[in-house]
Design goal:
By secondary structure, the protein is an all-alpha fold. It is built from two helices and no strands. The relative contact order is 0.12. Keywords: Membrane, Transmembrane, Transmembrane helix.
């Protein structure tokens, strides 16, 4: 199940990192809203994954 989550997280994290580097070096201009939106989406997705993982282990133990 962990590999499925990485299929979504790794490309988003890579895109965020590349956009931030290109923006800081002046190659392209990325609006701050886009960077914050992707960062917030990644944080929200990580929280969702952790909640699912916790509830999944609790259900297996019962």
């Amino acid at each position: 199940m962990n590999m499925y989550y990485n299929k979504i997280r790794i490309p988003l994290l890579t895109a965020l990192f590349i956009m931030m580097i290109l923006d800081l070096t002046g190659v392209i201009h990325v609006p701050a809203f886009v960077i914050f939106a992707i960062a917030i989406a990644l944080i929200g997705y990580n929280i969702y994954i952790r909640k699912n993982r916790q509830s999944g282990t609790q259900n297996k133990n019962n």
